Amino acid sequence: MRSQDWLGGLDERLRRQLGFLIEIDRLKTVLRGTRIADESRRENTAEHSWHLALFALVLAEHADDAVDTLRVVRMLLIHDIVEIDAGDTPVFGGTPAAEQAEREQRAADRLFGLLPDDQVDEFRSSWDEFEAAETPDARFAKALDRLQPSLLNHVVGGGTWTDYGVDEATERATTRRVADAAPALGDALEAAIADAVANGWLRPNS
Amino acid sequence: MRSQDWLGGLDERLRRQLGFLIEIDRLKTVLRGTRIADESRRENTAEHSWHLALFALVLAEHADDAVDTLRVVRMLLIHDIVEIDAGDTPVFGGTPAAEQAEREQRAADRLFGLLPDDQVDEFRSSWDEFEAAETPDARFAKALDRLQPSLLNHVVGGGTWTDYGVDEATERATTRRVADAAPALGDALEAAIADAVANGWLRPNS
Question: What range(s) does the HD/PDEase domain occupy (chains A, B) (predicted)?
Fold first, then answer.
């Protein structure tokens, strides 16, 4: 990256906004375990976030409690920005939760802290709400964040399921949020899981 | 991609929605001319779309006419989905406009046509509005779509400017939409252009 000294000539608010937007380009280099559908490579977190935002735009009607689509989309667009500093936390085989949570808090402080103060509050509260997973918007956003990788695992015939030898009970426990927040999407995921077991991409439990 | 026969067991609406969401995964494999900030590779269109949506969330206040952030974000998230069939249209050195426009219309018919009928209309009208670039929301979205690659060209010290030997007058003409839709962002871009000329990343005109 070349010198961004030219930003110094802008007013502070715009300088901070553009500095943030340039910094978060790095999310394009954070790799996840999930493969993209053509199986050519692993998915990065920026394109994963785009995909999830589309899931929200298309599937919002299935949320069990009514959701505010813009709030859900915003959460999904920013929910993984902390991975620039903290790295991805794989659903299967990841870092101990407490350690990773602390890293992510520090990452949120630094990264959202690049923005003007009022936007720090706006973005940080959206991220905190997502992490807490208590409001209808956050519960639905979290559900989509579980649904998408499972669908991609099915599309590629295994993916992280095969990498980590996941069994169907573990997969169901990991994705319980989907049925809780959106029953119709939970039923669809159950159909994908049953098909994956039948194809040998998820280990059966009995 | 493995058989998606399991979708056949779902009700038609959900089947179409999930089929669309799986199909658009291919946008992650469409490469643009622009490099990502760490200069390691070209940007793909899915991560570009994510980045633009963040530009909208952070910079909406600079739109000259008030904009509806959700409408702008939705436009930016879907504006390039047609590239799955039609390919990217580079700002510099691209396909003849009329030919590309026809390809994109066919792509929009097929891709948005995967959705349930009411969502076909919703997504298609959002895409048509973006393409027409007449409403305040679309003018601002188009401006961001010009601003982001120029900032990345500056960050990497040339990028597509150097690839195509672009001069500063051409760059200013190509990005006129930015100042038109958001004067403060136009001023910022002008500062980046001046700095790029001083650094030899854009050819001077005199």
Answer: 41-159
Q: Number of folded domains in chain B?
A: 1
Query: What CATH number did the domain enclosing B194 receive?
Result: 1.10.3210.10
Q: Is residue A124 part of a domain?
A: yes
Where do we find the tokens 């058989």? B3
Instruction: Please report, for chain B, how many H helices and E strands are present, in that order.
Output: 11, 2
Contacts of A5 in chain B (CB under 8 A): 195
Q: Do B152 and A188 touch (CB under 8 A)?
A: no
Q: Which residue has the tokens 């672009």?
A: B166
In chain A, residues with a C-beta closer than 8 Å to the C-beta of B191 are 6, 9-10
Is the residue at B2 inside a domain? no
Residue B3 covered by a domain: no
Among partner residues A5, A77, A152, which is closest to B53 by beta-carbon distance?
A77
Burial class of residue A99 (count of CB atoms within 10 Å of its CB; 0-12, 13-18, 19+): exposed
Burial of A206 (0-12, 13-18, 19+ CB in 10 A): exposed
**CA–CA distance from A114 to each of A69, A86, A102 (Å)?**
26, 16, 19
Range of the domain at B173: 11-199
A chain contacts of residue B22, beta-carbon cutoff 8 Å: 37, 151, 155
Interface confidence, given as ipTM, is 0.96
